[in-house]
Design brief:
Helices cover about 40% and strands about 15% of the residues. With about 425 residues, it is an alpha/beta fold. Bound molecules: pyridoxal-5'-phosphate (PLP). The site of pyridoxal-5'-phosphate has 14 residues, from helix 4.
């Protein structure tokens, strides 16, 4: 890779620095935490969806600059906040068909959300009734469980399928069947997809929306990973693919995955349909918790800048390089484990079905063998993958290489 201007190689010691990815080991807060390593091994975090890279300097500069003015009273969201979002979302890579993403986006269509979870929860409550079934893909992001089941709704899963070229695809026929059989009116869709690392192509989104339109299905669309995509795989906002999508898709975005600032909290929705926007905004305001923090506002403005874009390009090249390293290593060294080439995000989804069947080992045994030697990976069970592991590759390449060295020497021996 070309030399980077920004630092994606230094190893950060995050211990005791407000990082659940390293301090949450062996705790049972979410029942998804890895166990601590045995003596002699340091821990390589490859689970929580945050990065072991420092954020973009423009983000920290913006926070520090604001903190120099030592008063933090009540405030209004600034024009700069909305303008930064509009510029950033419209400046996403051109989709090759001559139209700018979110070309008509206006301020009133953007609303602050205290996390994408908060948004999905509000949207689920507005769009569905208790007991109603909601369509999702499997595998999917673990947080959707609390956004649906905890609200008394049921989930129906349509599995992604790997095609002959090793690319995860959705199965439209299966989705349509599930919609009809379960009387479904709402889908939660993740784009780019966590945990598969798939960046959906425009034609796939168009086909999906045609099918959903025919079945009168609305979409709660989680696009939190929209900025993390690799060469040749531009992100297409779902709302852009048809007039129906513009009116019937409720989308959420955030700077948190992009700039490694999940701890600052601060996501936002884009909803074009006025009536739905009013309802979701009202639902979000009911608790009085859905309020932005002033430092988080300045962090977004700092990140959504020219420097932020330059930093992001380097980050994406780094993540792509890590993904290629991991893919080549697995295909060369670990027979029986199936993976797709990541197109975006920093997650890799390992299918161990053949390996487990051939070796007679259980997923738990493999997970523990990794944790014992500091490979901080995560069980796929939480993501609807019974024989799967999710790997977070957002660390300096030297750490990823070390994790794979340990997997080869101690886990898949
Ligand atoms: C698909 C997806 N949605 C939402 C979240 C969490 O979003 P937030 O921290 O804004 O609630 C994550 C975090 O991993 C995610 O992967």
């Amino acid at each position: 890779m070309n030399k980077c201007k920004y630092d994606f190689t230094s190893i950060m010691d995050r211990r005791g620095r407000d990082a659940y990815a390293v301090d949450g080991l062996g705790q049972n807060r979410w029942q998804i935490e890895p166990c601590p390593p045995k003596n002699g091994f340091d821990f390589i975090p490859m689970w929580v969806a945050d990065m072991n890279f420092p954020t973009c300097p423009a983000v920290t500069d913006a926070i520090i600059e604001r903190a120099k003015h030592p008063a933090f009273g009540y405030f209004e969201i600034s024009d700069a906040y909305y303008d930064s979002i509009i510029r950033w979302r419209q400046g996403a890579p051109w989709d090759g068909e001559g139209s700018r993403p979110h070309a008509q986006l206006e301020r009133k269509q953007i609303g602050y959300e205290n996390g994408v979870h908060g948004f999905v929860t509000s949207a689920v409550r507005v769009m569905t009734q208790p007991g109603e079934k909601i369509l999702l893909h499997s595998p999917n992001y673990v947080g959707f469980r609390s956004d649906t089941w905890a609200q008394g709704r049921e989930c129906v899963f349509s599995p992604l399928k790997m095609d002959e070229e090793g690319i995860w695809r959705m199965d439209l026929a299966d989705m349509a069947r599930q919609i009809e059989e379960n009387d479904i009116h709402v889908m939660i869709f993740c784009s780019p997809q966590n945990p598969s690392g798939r960046v959906w192509e425009r034609w796939e989104l168009e086909e999906m929306m045609k099918m959903l339109e025919a079945h009168h299905v609305d979409v709660i669309c989680d696009e939190i990973w929209a900025d993390l995509t690799f060469e040749g795989h531009p992100h297409t906002p779902l709302q852009d693919v048809s007039p129906y999508a513009r009116e019937h898709v409720l989308a959420a975005y955030a700077p948190s995955k992009t700039f490694n600032i999940a701890g600052l909290i601060g996501s936002y929705h884009i909803i074009y349909n006025e009536e739905l926007r009013r309802k979701v905004t009202q639902q979000g305001s009911l608790t009085n918790y859905n309020e932005i923090n002033v430092l988080s506002m300045h962090a977004l403005i700092g990140g959504y800048s020219a420097e932020g874009r330059e930093w992001l390009q380097e980050l994406n090249r780094t993540l792509e390089e890590n993904g290629s390293f991991a893919l080549d290593f697995i295909r060369r060294e670990f027979p029986g484990i199936t993976v797709a080439r990541p197109q975006g995000t920093y997650m890799m989804w390992l299918d161990l079905s053949d390996y487990l069947a051939g070796s007679g080992r259980t997923l738990e045994e493999v997970l523990h063998a990794g944790w014992d030697v500091g490979v901080g990976w995560q069980s796929g069970v939480h993501f609807e993958g019974p024989s799967h592991i999710r790997l977070n590759l957002a660390s300096p390449l030297s750490r990823i290489q070390e994790a794979f060295r340990r997997m080869k020497e101690y886990v898949f021996t």
